Amino acid sequence: MVKFYPSINSDHAEFMLKQPLFYVASAPYAGTHVNLSPKGQPSRSFAVRGENSMAYVDATGSGCETISHVYENGRVTVMFCSFGVSPKIMRLFCRGTVIELGDKKFEPLAAKMGHSVGLPGARAIILLDVYKLQTSCGFGVPLIGNSKNATTPWESETEDDGQNTHDEEKNMGSNEKRALLGYQKNSNFQSLDGLPGLRTARRARGQWILLEDTKAHARRLMRQWDAIIAGSLLTALVIAVLSSSGILVVEVRV
Question: Could you tell me which residues belong to the region Disordered (predicted)?
Fold first, then answer.
């Protein structure tokens, strides 16, 4: 049975942090792609900050769809589901904000999340304002794992004390960090629909951020000309009908 909630309660938070992964969906205002990304290990990368606030660490990947979409319109849906004998699906409808690594807000936010943000390749924190939460039965989700009692059957395979991840980050040499930045420069500067992506990657490519943002805004408006034209024609039709019926009288003074 589907239920809706205006905020996150303690049971919701406990359920989220026990799952082995979660999913993030986003889309541009105008474009051909709807993005869906899996994110791993919520216990180390995700935090519930309040009744209507949560955040997760965004690691470097082969694209930057979520970052681009959040920069453009802020719309994000986050989904958790259990793969054990207690089925449940949880969707959180959110407005997102990107806090990139290097931003003055990044380190204070990471500290407030209660995590040691030592994930290799962390490039941003996605801050999420939750305005609606939905739960449903989840009986269509397959059972994975051998434990009859576990609600998170992958937990024993994925959880550790976080030390290995932290050590990996500390042991990254300067050459590896440069390679990572080079990868972001080539792979994370724009979305599949050409929206502006990671700002650090765009600056590394020599882009003028304000200029490129303005151009992206103009492209979005151009893609919406069909709606603008349809609205204009509908307005003209309404005015013509009202004028012919005598309802609309326009007085012109010379």
Answer: 150-172
